[in-house]
Amino acid sequence: xxxxxxxxxxxxxxxxxxxxxxxxxxxxxxxxxxxxxxxxxxxxxxxxxxxxxxxxxxxxxxxxxxxxxxxxxxxxxxxxxxxxxxxxxxxxxxxxxxxxxxxxxxxxxxxxxxxxxxxxxxxxxxxxxxxxxxxxxxxxxxxxxxxxxxxxxxxxxxxxxxxxxxxxxxxxxxxxxxxxxxxxxxxxxxxxxxxxxxxxxxxxxxxxxxxxxxxxxxxxxxxxxxxxxxxxxxxxxxxxxxxxxxxxxxxxxxxxxxxxxxxxxxxxxxxxxxxxxxxxxxxxxxxxxxxxxxxxxxxxxxxxxxxxxxxxxxxxxxxxxxxxxxxxxxxxxxxxxxxxxxxxxxxxxxxxxxxxxxxxxxxxxxxxxxxxxxxxxxxxxxxxxxxxxxxxxxxxxxxxxxxxxxxxxxxxxxxxxxxxxxxxxxxxxx
Length: 430
Ligand code: SAH
Ligand code: SF4
Ligand code: F3S
What we know:
Largest sheet: 5 strands, parallel
Mean pLDDT: 94
Number of domains: 3
CATH topology of the largest domain: pyruvate-formate lyase- activating enzyme
Bound molecules: S-adenosyl-L-homocysteine, iron/sulfur cluster, FE3-S4 cluster
Oligomer: single chain
Strand content: 15-25%
Structural class: alpha/beta
CATH superfamily of the largest domain: tm_1862 like domain
């Protein structure tokens, strides 16, 4: 049986697409391998959001060149945001790559498979993907909208993923029903801006409508969605979240900066005041909400004072999680064209460290409040001899037990907390 290995970096969308590709290869009779060197076919699912990610891709492509020299029959497929429109040039630069296909361009993958004599998994193109979905993880990622129409000045994503295209609601419902029937308990709906879901579909259904439909699916216990653009987060959506038991108290709401001039230069189209107001509205409606955010530091021209405004926002909002990144100029973006990357690398690093230090202290306080409490955990797997899963608020919880808890919703009494995870003893199942 031929074997495949999928290497994935980047966002949840890439992870979701890797799950889909794995489904395609499973249904074509391939078996998963544990590393590149054990595989007959490798897929690189790439990210270029920052230069550091792109460098990882280039490094891995170099490594695979060496492997292909030794094993000329190795098939190498590359997808994800590294694949730009200049495929001819990419092919010339990386002659050892057998197929380059844009994110989500499965017809291209299937056509290639056909040429190789790999059975076509039609169900990768038509829903429900009954056979392509061989394994149903307890927690599945479901792409609902591709691309992005926003063009934040620093961001390469719209150039690589194109304009927004929503998946028809019926197709999504069908897929989630099928997954739930086969044991999936939680779905995370993914997209670059899930808040704009549906604007391009007939009848313009929105995310709140989709959540209502998914909430009716038997067997499904939890629904999450990400990422949310603060500009497009509607009151209807907040109220829908608050009223639906299955929708988890968890939101990824990237602020990007706590300074209005920087937000303007970033083309985020909201102010700090509007962001703050939004968080208050969300907290009023959903008191248990757990919030994550993204912050970019060292955007061109960011002064010490402007950076301090991001620190103040973090202090004030007390997010559960903050993903902080140093600005990285991406060729073709507005910021790359119009601004000089003039914040020295050491200063960016220092700012990243300051935010991480502050957030570690905040998350440590927030999580320590769970000490001694019982929390519901959906068990996703095992790591280092321990079971792990997440609470509805997306806190990672570990516990040790000899039983088989995979895919089960259990109560765990928290005995240990840290800024990043919780640990405890399993109590009751339901
Ligand atoms: N759609 C999401 C984010 C997608 S990109 C949103 O609108 O927020 C994921 C994260 O990478 C972003 O939130 C941002 O914080 C970071 N990012 C994007 N471009 C970047 C760049 N050029 N340099 C540094 N960080 C960047
Ligand atoms: Fe990038 Fe902005 Fe689109 Fe997010 S909303 S993917 S940051 S352009
Ligand atoms: Fe990276 Fe593309 Fe996601 S650049 S963050 S993989 S949309």
